[in-house]
Every structure is written in structure tokens, then in C-alpha cells.
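tool_call predict_complex ligand=5,10-methenyl-6,7,8-trihydrofolic acid
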Amino acid sequence: MSEHPSTTSTPAEVTAPYGTGVQAAPQRRVRVPHLQAMKERGEKWAMLTAYDMYSAEIFDEAGIPVLLVGDSAGNNVYGFETTVPVTVDHLVPLVRAVTSAARHAMVVADLPFGSYQASPQQALATATRFMKEGMAHAVKLEGGASMVPEVELLVRAGIPVMGHIGFTPQSEHVLGGYKVQGRGESADRLVEDALALQEAGCFAVVMEMVPAPLAARVTEVLSIPTIGIGAGPECDAQVLVWQDMAGLRGGKAPRFVKKYADLRGELGRAAAAYAADVASGAFPAPEHSFPE
Ligand SMILES: Nc1nc(=O)c2c([nH]1)NC[C@@H]1CN(c3ccc(C(=O)N[C@@H](CCC(=O)O)C(=O)O)cc3)CN21
Ligand SMILES: CC(C)C(=O)C(=O)O
Ligand SMILES: [Mg+2]
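tool_result ok
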């Protein structure tokens, strides 16, 4: 059962999800104005990462309006320790898989480290690959005021851009590790970065590991939606890496994670039960076998 607010039966009959309450023209895909309308109505929403077909399908059917194909695929799909080694070629096929499976959600492609910082032209070339080959609906990039020329060119070219400030994992070597950003005198700079991104044309801004009162201040000041991860409850939206949210990954999760399931335990038990059945001869049973 779909829990998208206004997705009822067949796609053809679906009316605007996250619409204004006014009957809009049939509209099955979440788009920038829907997110803007939700901010104006004070409706909070959740974003999740997705990197493959089934996760995208499940989250889409659960009514998640925005799916992010994060460069966090680096440490959640490809087995790297960080997002730094991730390339465009790593992500394009994953974006394509997610856009193919998501019927309603807006799919945002994360631009990986080194694929957009050299120039606005490089950013446009990279974003264009994600739009054409990945069939993404928007892109995300890390950085504040310094990224204004890149954001402006992408938006001028017709590509919706999501910003990302606070802790920006692609810069962890400069930032000196996984640390809360915007404490003390750097708070005003974070507000300025957020405003610069909005002014440049971003449709939303992710804030990662920012003190809750500062994130609340940015959310108040900005007219576009803020999306928090470790940025307190006052943001317009929240984002989590799905394997964190669903308890698939092992080890100690960051403070900002809440586990809503124990997929790791569940999947481990399934694998062990299957192996035990094979060992005992209980699987395959006659119903799994083909008679002559
Ligand atoms: N699975 C996963 N979840 C994420 O949230 C995530 C990724 N991967 N990969 C890309 C970035 C990296 N992120 C991370 C990763 C680890 C911490 C972390 O270890 N935080 C600790 C220490 C904070 C501190 O020292 O102040 C914490 O307890 O929150 C934070 C953000 C967020 N993103
Ligand atoms: C955690 C989110 C915001 C992200 O950038 C990612 O998943 O790569
Ligand atoms: Mg990312």
C-alpha cells in the first residue's frame, strides 16, 4: 500500500503529491514546488539515501518524497572507508537504478569529490551526465559561498541543485575529522553560506552535524527547505543513510542515527537458517523441485 499522501490507485489517476490542496493537474513526480509548498505549510518530510532498485522501490512506496543517491555509496556499497574515492562512474549506474525504480520520489544525485570543484564548466559537465545517463531529477554538491558560481551555472542550465553545508564529508581531511561545524564564531559564516546558496538558486540545503539552535536559525532565515542530518529537530526535513536507519550496518552508528529496524540481525538469521536447511537436507523440498 502506497502511503504517498495523494497517490491512490493507478499512476494515471494520481494527483499532485505534496500539492497545495488545490486540485492540480495530474502530477506523479515530486518536484521542487512541492517541497517549497511543504515548507510554507510547515510540513516536515524525510529523505533517505538509496543505491539500488529494491530500496528505491520500497522507500518510494513508503511515501518518501526525495531519494538521494549519496556518495555515501563509497562506504555503504563499495567498501571504501570514506566518500573521497568515489567517482562519477561509480554513481551513474546506481542513480539510473534508483530513478528506474522510483515512480514518485524526486531522485537527487550526489556529485562526488573532484567532479565539480574545478570550475562551473566541470560541474555542469558532471551534472549533465547524472541528468542524461542517470536520469536524475536534481543534483547535490558540498560547499557554501565558494560554490556559488557552480550552483548558478547549473541552475541556469536547468538543473535543480541541493546544497550541503556544515560537516561536508568530502572535505574531512581539511575539516580534521567527523566534527560538528558552526560552533562559536563560525556560526555566522554557516548562515552566510546557507544564504549564498539560496541566493545562487539552490532549492534546498542539507545541514550535516550542526548545533540544533544554529540549524533552527538557518531554517528560520531561509525561504527554501533545510534538510538536517545531526542538525536537530527544527529543520524542514531530515535525511539518513538507509542502512543506518534500518540497522543493516554493523558497528557504532553516529549520534544522529536512529535505528528503525534490525535488518542486520534479520538477514543474518535468514542466511543461517537457509544454510542449516541445506546442510540438513530440508531445503530444497519437493515444492522447490521440478518433477519429470
Ligand atoms: N553509513 C553512513 N552514514 C552516514 O551518515 C554517512 C556515511 N555513511 N557516509 C558519508 C557521510 C559520513 N558521515 C559521518 C560518518 C561518521 C560520523 C561519526 O562518526 N560521528 C560520530 C563522531 C562525532 C564527533 O566526533 O563529534 C558521532 O558520534 O556522531 C559522522 C558523519 C555522514 N555520512
Ligand atoms: C548523508 C547525505 C546527506 C549524503 O551526502 C550522502 O549520503 O552522501
Ligand atoms: Mg554525500
